[in-house]
Every structure is written in structure tokens, then in C-alpha cells.
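Escalation from tier 1.

The customer reports that the assembly of two entities below gives different C-alpha cells on two consecutive runs. Tier 1 could not reproduce it. I'm attaching the input and our single run for tier 2 to review.
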Amino acid sequence: MRLAELSERSGVTTATIKYYLREGLLPPGERISATQAEYGEEHLRRLRLVRALVQVGRIPVATAREVLTAIDDDRTDQLTRIGTAVAALPQPAPPRRRDETVVTAEALAGELQRRLGWRIVVNNPAHQALVTALAALLRLGYPCAVEQLLPYGTAADGLAAHEIALIGEFASPTTQLEAAVALTVLYEPVLLSLRRLAQAEAATRQLRDPS
Amino acid sequence: MRLAELSERSGVTTATIKYYLREGLLPPGERISATQAEYGEEHLRRLRLVRALVQVGRIPVATAREVLTAIDDDRTDQLTRIGTAVAALPQPAPPRRRDETVVTAEALAGELQRRLGWRIVVNNPAHQALVTALAALLRLGYPCAVEQLLPYGTAADGLAAHEIALIGEFASPTTQLEAAVALTVLYEPVLLSLRRLAQAEAATRQLRDPS
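Tier 1 run:
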């Protein structure tokens, strides 16, 4: 298809598509003349992922490029590619200095993951984000014992099993990788808004009918 | 206690405490002379909540003031106060225009909550945030059938029950309200980072030992 059709089918303006092409977020089409190029279904699919990252996830273009480069890096296996792509997504910054609270938070994060039966990968940015979040709870004196954290881990475990099955329904390794990245970004607001709605529902039940 | 002690015990500089006092995030202390005021444990507790909102949640000062005003509004019952306070927390913007996709997303959000047995409160900002998130999934053509969304709702339901119990351990209605707001903000990054770690764990298991 030509640029105009790619624009119409994707709902992305031709100016934005050209910008994504220049920024390397979209692979170039096949040149068919000095001024025209032909695009395929893979461009449409990739455009969908770019919009998930940039427009919905509000991820900076440079970061999105990093994520896409990881997806396309065929020198590595599927597991490394998915790990690198998801790790390149924006995360809260790790703690600035490793004070006593951070050391306690690291121990807590390790204990929690052991209890859940997970491998501990300290250089996973999500591990660092967890340590930062736990250090904030500890520093402010809010409850965060392992027993109080376990329900969050168990919930995440259940969702991950569901998500792996969902991703497995995509046809090829590349589309699976793209879906894994897109769904990580797109389902975060789903999960957070449902958490708030569930809290409102539980609070309403509790206060109207305390038992 | 005097300002210096409040600063030492809270770890917040006196300059920042004075700023919070000026901005109305902290109630004034009891004047004991022209230049000195006395602060109590409730100031220490409130300071902890302000830091959770402003420093950890990166919530604008004006928004934090709105949240605190809702907590302190003793003309309304506990349920209204908690609802107003949590609703004042920053949420993704609602959809800009109500096109066909938004209408489909609204129906989907309604059906999901009905299946979960929740009351549907369309003016809850979290409901609007859910509609926005589902509209993005629909628009980009990623999977979001009710069956695929239910596990997120069920997980949120389980966490809400846990959170209500956790908050119930705080002594007074006011401390419970404060804890509800603080924990909503502070546990979001815990949940999101655990989700990414659970995904990494599930992907590692799946790809090393496909079954």
C-alpha cells in the first residue's frame, strides 16, 4: 500500500508517519519510484505498536526507538529480546543513595520474591523500581511487611500467567514480542483504574454493611 | 514540639515545613509566642501523608490540598470523604470526544463491572480512566474482550479486600482516611513493578520449559 492508504488504515496522519520514518520508529517502505514507496501489513502493525508506546504510554521517542531496536535484534533469542524491550520501558528511577532504608527495602524485595518462588534478577529495572517503592513505604512508616506485600505478588503472578497465554495467541515470535510490549503499556492504566474502582466498591460495602 | 523537632522527627527541612504551612497542606501549630508555635503528633502524621502525595506520588501541591481538604471535611460521612479524597488524586484524562470507540469502551467497562458484581459509578474518575484505557486498546486493535479483562478485575477485587483490612488496622477514622489515600498512591508502583517482575518470571519459565 502507498503512504496515503497506510495513513487511512492506521488513522495516523501522513506527516506523523513521515516523522516516525525519519526517527527510525518505522522501517522504510520498499522504494518503487523516486518519490514513492510501498508499505506492507508489518508497517501497519508496527505503527499500532508505536502509537501504543508514544501516544498512549507517553513514552519519549528516543525510548520507544530503544524498545523497538530490542524487539528487532535478531542476534539474540526471544527471551533476551522481550526482557530488553520491556526493561527499556520507562520505570521509576532507582534510589539515589543506598542508605539503611534502601538496604532494608532490598532485603524485603528479595524475601518477597523468594516467598513467591521467583528468580531474583537485581539488575532488572523493575526490581530497582520495587526497591524504590518499598523504601518510600518504609521511610514514611506505612505498613509493608512481607505478609502485607504477598497479596500484590500473588495477584501479579496470576495476571502474568493470563498475559503469557494472551500473548501466545499472536501468530509469530515478532508479533508476540510486539504484543508483549504493547500490552505491558496499555494494560497498566486498566489495572490501576480497576484497583481504584474495586477499592471504592469494597469501601462502600464495608461502610454500609460493617461486619 | 517546636518546628525544629518536627523537622528532625519527620526528616523534612524547616523551610519545606514552612512552605507546606503557607500552602495550607499542614494545619497551623498552636501559637505560644509571637514567633513560636507548638506542633503535635497529628502534624507529624499529616507531614508523612503530604510527603507520600507530593514527594513520592509527585502530585501537584494544589491537587494535594484538594485531597487533604476532602479528608478534613467533617460535614460529610467517612464514605464520601474517602471517595472525594481518592477521586481528587491525579487520573488519566477522560476521552476528549465521545466517538464510536468510546461508546463501545463505555459498554465494555459497564459489562466488566457488572460481571464483577460492582456498582457502576460513571462519574467516578477511575471509571472514566478505565474507559480511556479500553478505548486505546480497542482503537489499536489489541485484545480486550470482557473475558480477557476479568482477571484484572478479579485481581483488583482481591487486593481491595486486603487493602480495606490493612486500613482497618489504623486507629481512628481520620488516620484510616489518611492511610487509604497514602496507600493508594504508595502501592501503585509496588503493584506495577511486581507485575513486570511476574511477567519476566512467567516468560522465563515459558520459554525455558514450554509445555
